[in-house]
Write a structure and sequence with these properties.
By secondary structure, the protein is an alpha/beta fold. The chain is about 40% helix and about 15% strand. It has helices at about 5-15, 30-35, 50-65, 75-85, 110-125, 140-155, 185-195, 210-220, 240-250, 260-265, 270-275, 305-310, 325-335, 360-374, and strands at about 20, 45, 70, 95-100, 130-135, 160-165, 200-205, 230, 255-260, 280-285, 290, 295-300, 315-320, 340-345. The strands form three sheets. Strands 2-1-3-4-6-5 form a six-stranded parallel β-sheet, sandwiched between helices. Helix 3 packs parallel to helix 4, helix 7 crosses helix 8 and helix 9 (about 240-250) runs parallel beside helix 11. The protein binds thiamine diphosphate. Thiamine diphosphate (TPP) binds near residues 207 and 299.
């Protein structure tokens, strides 16, 4: 395995001093190290991966230095537009190094949402003609790989991808943790929500541990999974899936259980919810101020006011829960409000170590969910 310090030092000696991206579970150790040792203004956790390409472009335009952009291959799709229509050699030709976590690599066991993306990751890079190299835990020559990559980046003025295999980096735990002391964590909030909604209610859960915790709580309660759509991929789009359901089934209550990182990824979607105004649309943001599912790197969730954003986007009502004692009362008002309404639940980050993964396939989930909605 490669030590995160050695890898980082090698990037620094290649004159890289600006980092941006969206964290990834497979890159969590190097992302944690970058977060701990880089001045805040030189490591920007972006709203989405496309935004990170924009930030990297701007930094390069103004400094002529090579920036580094990190992401999971799930997020590579978000970069295609700015990469191909701006940074590409055929347009502005902006040099940058991309560190992409290779989830779903063929032959490596992974979750369904990563299989297609992982299968086509190399083909995709070849098709869009972005040079790349693969780095794995036995890449003792990683310094040479980075050196060669930097030569190509500089000589050809092009984006260059380092595709990182699972298990490449030695473990590194984030030290600069934001410690909070709320009554609840995400799983406590999810349990309360499921206990308080009715049997007819539809749930759409966001990407990451939220969907996994919803799944496990249904198991714990001896219930089926037909009421829940698990947005296992497509981070940031759960609320638009929920909106589509609300439009087709205007009399049903639809609860979207979202995350702060996910909402921030495509915040404009909230404006569409506010514009369409589905009466029974219940938007819940569980705000832990972090990308908890992939290592706990901070978001701006604790520094902004989601309620004011929802108001400005024409939601009809906004609610907030910060403690257990107010939960039932506020949740009741939220349920009785005319939507679209927003409920922000502020929680500590963190999850159970033994949290499992859905044991039914996405297709099974779809079939059961569709018959429940019908
Ligand atoms: C487009 C995209 N980028 C990155 C990821 C990796 N990823 C999965 S969950 C997650 C964090 C989600 O954060 P948040 O919505 O705040 O929920 P939390 O994990 O904190 O509960 C990330 C970055 C992804 N699945 N898709």
């Amino acid at each position: 395995m490669i030590s995160v310090k050695d890898f980082y030092d090698c990037l620094k000696s290649s004159n890289i001093d600006f980092f941006t991206g969206v964290p990834d579970s497979l890159l969590k150790d190097i992302c944690n190290y970058i977060t701990d040792v880089t001045p805040k203004k030189n490591n920007i956790i972006a709203a989405n991966e496309g935004g990170a390409i924009g930030l990297a472009m701007g930094y390069n335009l103004a400094s002529s230095k090579i920036p580094l952009v990190y992401m999971q291959n799930s997020g590579f799709g978000n970069t295609i537009n700015p990469l191909l229509s701006l940074a590409d050699q055929k347009v502005y030709s902006i040099p940058m190094l991309l560190l992409v976590g290779w989830r779903g690599e063929p032959g490596v066991n992974d979750e369904p949402q990563h299989l297609k993306q992982g299968l086509v990751s190399e083909e995709l890079l070849k098709t869009i003609n972005i040079p790349y190299s693969v780095i794995s835990n036995d890449s003792s020559d990683f310094e040479n790989i980075i050196k060669n990559a930097m030569e190509t980046v500089n000589n050809k003025q092009t984006p260059y991808v380092l595709l990182i295999r699972k298990g490449t980096f030695e473990p590194y735990l984030l030290k600069n943790k934001i410690i909070t002391d709320y009554d609840l964590n995400r799983e406590d909030a999810i349990k309360k929500i499921i206990d308080l909604i009715s049997d007819e209610d539809i749930v759409v859960a966001t990407t990451g541990k939220t969907s996994r915790e919803v799944f496990e709580y249904r198991v714990e309660k001896g219930m089926g999974h037909e009421k829940d759509f698990l947005t296992v991929g497509g981070m940031g789009h759960a609320n638009q899936i929920a909106l589509g359901i609300s439009i087709a089934k205007p009399e049903r209550r639809v609860f979207c259980i979202d995350g702060d990182g996910a909402v921030l990824m495509h915040t404009g979607s909230m404006g569409i919810i506010g514009d369409i105004k589905p009466k029974h649309f219940k938007h819940i943001i569980i705000n832990n101020g972090a990308h908890d599912s992939v290592g706990g790197q901070p978001t701006i969730g604790f520094e902004i006011n989601f309620g004011k954003i929802a108001n400005a986007f024409n939601y009809k009502d906004v609610f907030s829960i910060k403690s257990l004692c107010e939960f039932d009362k506020v949740f009741d008002s939220f349920c009785n409000s005319i939507g679209p309404s927003l409920l922000e639940i502020v929680v500590n980050k963190g999850a159970r170590k033994d949290l499992g993964r859905p044991t039914i396939s996405p297709k099974e989930n779809k079939i059961n969910f569709k018959s429940f909605i019908k």
